[in-house]
Amino acid sequence: MTKAELVDALSGEIDLSKRQLGEIVDLVLDEIRDALVKGEKVQLIPFGSFVVKERQKREGRNPKTGAKLMIPARRVPSFTAGKGLRDAVAGSKKRAAPKKR
Description:
The chain has about 100 residues and is of the alpha+beta class. The protein has 2 domains: about 1-40; about 40-90, HU Protein, Chain A (Irregular). About 40% of the residues lie in helices and about 25% in strands. Helix 1 (about 5-15) crosses helix 2 (about 20-35). The longest helix is centred in the N-terminal third of the chain and has 20 residues, at about 20-35. The two termini are about 40 Å apart.
């Protein structure tokens, strides 16, 4: 789902223009980004949590030449799905049990 598809889906549920909904989605995403930049954890219960993780510097290899190189330490955003999201996704595709032979 793209941001435009999300706005379209919300427009069927909320009595606001697509432009207004797009601005609201942008504001929410900006707030999440700003909190992560500050190093804060963002919890959207039961959806999930966004956190910033610190990656240590490590040795890597250039896949083309095989030469060793140092990959610098950095901060990366991480998302952990909440129980509500995990349960919804797990129950979304009911598969038939495989036949035993």
